[in-house]
Amino acid sequence: MTYDVTVIGSGPGGYVAAIRAAQLGLKTAIIEKDKTLGGTCLNVGCIPSKALLDSSEHYYNAKSHFTEHGIDLKNLKVNMPQMIQRKADVVKQTCDGIEFLMKKNKIDVLWGWGKFKDKNTLIITNETGETQEITSKKIIIATGSRPTPLPGVEIDQKRIITSTEALEITEVPKSMIVIGAGVISSELGSVYARLGTEVTMIEYLDSMIPMMDKTMGKELQKSMRKLGMKFFFNHKVTSVVNKGKKVEVVAEDKKGEKTTFEAEYCLVAIGRRAYTDKLGLENIGLATDKQGRIDVNKHLETSVEGVYAIGDVIKGAMLAHKAEEEGVFVAETIAGQKPHINYLLIPGVVYTWPEVASVGHTEEELKASGKAYKVGSFPFRALGRARASMDTDGLVKVLADKETDEILGVHIIGARAADMIAQAVTAMEYRASAEDVARMSHAHPTYMEAVKEACLAATENRALHI
Asked: Of 140, 172, 320, 409, which has the fewest beta carbons less than 10 angstroms from its beta carbon?
């Protein structure tokens, strides 16, 4: 078979690239090594974790807040097998939806492991060892990422686990150690803390979600403490040992003093690395860096003409929506169009509760660059809508140019922050000033009023409700 475009990997970046290529009239195929489409995001990442996050939040609210709302419950308990089954059903529905989209757009799905024979030829080996060979004018590498291993620690998938295994536990653990305090560890740690697990988080750096604006990490930690989570920052894990029914973790602080922790499970979630193994990159003269990533030019084309790479296998934030934008970008580039991506305006989200969402520059980045800026912030507790829903944790922080008032960054922690950040992206895409947003009418009572008020605060300290 000969194709115009072949995509290796069917995660959000890959399947979106294939759809856009097909829409543009290109004969398209997609290669997937697993039994279902959707990649990490749909199968063992974004979608299943959000399903458990929502389920655990429902339980936590029922246990902690329903009485105050005037709702009395008896015999409340967690049915963990049903929670996991619902998660699996959500995953299946979503993955089935991707298969439907492949058929709708007449994209050939080729099951197996894709490997380069040369820059226009791929050998695909299925699970039974059978092979087929295809040729393609253009090839897009979209093979995603996998959990980063912790040196010296063996993941046994029983007591010492990654995020994949953490999505399949069918009993609520009494205790869990989480190594890392980034996005994945924060989300899954909060899932189990809500269900009653004693969660201890150990982080090498000095805060939660350390790559985001520091205010967000401080506020998130305040909220997570209310779930009973314990934190040990500036600690380096030196050993993790499965002791049978428990795990023993040893970590040392900056002074070299060691602390021993014990729990039923240890979740290792220190990040992810590019998954570019066994693609036969050496057969076409492509090398990777220490993180397994592939270098690309401004068109996302590798050093090999006609071979492109997107998503987690190239530099940049490891986000599903970033990969989708890149998939569309490459498909349109191949078709002769001139698309663009503004990487600064790709938002980042943490789906804890409260949620955290950010776009643009952090305050730390602006300070480091010497940029003159001003800050406006507004707490959720001052919102009527937040008090009505009992979601008063969090704030909106707006960073604006001190001279021009152009919005440089927006950082939100609070209820529905993941949805709220879209207004900030839109405003910044059109280079709006803080005053522009402040003068727009925002419905009352809503969470979005906090964005308006934060922009007012950045504009001559004009917030109205605090």
From this structure: 172
**For 321-353, how does the pLDDT look when each residue is reduced to its tens digit (9 = 90+)?**
999 999 999 999 999 999 999 999 999 999 999
For 398-453, the pLDDT digits (tens) are 999 999 999 999 999 999 999 999 999 999 999 999 999 999 999 999 999 999 99
CATH superfamily of the 160-270 domain: FAD/NAD(P)-binding domain (3.50.50.60)
Domain 2-147+273-343: assigned CATH number: 3.50.50.60
pTM: 0.96
Residues taking part in catalysis: 444
CATH of domain 354-458: 3.30.390.30
**Domain chopping of the chain, boundaries:** 2-147+273-343, 160-270, 354-458
SS in 3 state form for the chain?
Answer: CEEEEEEECCCHHHHHHHHHHHHCCCCEEEEECCCCCCHHHHHHCHHHHHHHHHHHHHHHHHHHCCCCCCCCCCCCCCCHHHHHHHHHHHHHHHHHHHHHHHHHCCCEEEECEEEEEECCEEEEECCCCCEEEEEEEEEEECCCEEECCCCCCCCCCCCEECHHHHCCCCCCCCEEEEECCCHHHHHHHHHHHHHCCEEEEECCCCCCCCCCCHHHHHHHHHHHHCCCCEEECCCEEEEEEECCCCEEEEEECCCCCEEEEEECEEEECCCEEECCCCCCHHHHCCCCCCCCCCCCCCCCECCCCCEEECHHHCCCCCCHHHHHHHHHHHHHHHCCCCCCCCHHHCCEEECCCCEEEEEECCHHHHHHHCCCEEEEEEEHHHCHHHHHHCCCCCEEEEEEECCCCEEEEEEEEECCHHHHHHHHHHHHHCCCEHHHHHCCCCCCCCCCHHHHHHHHHHCCCCCCCC
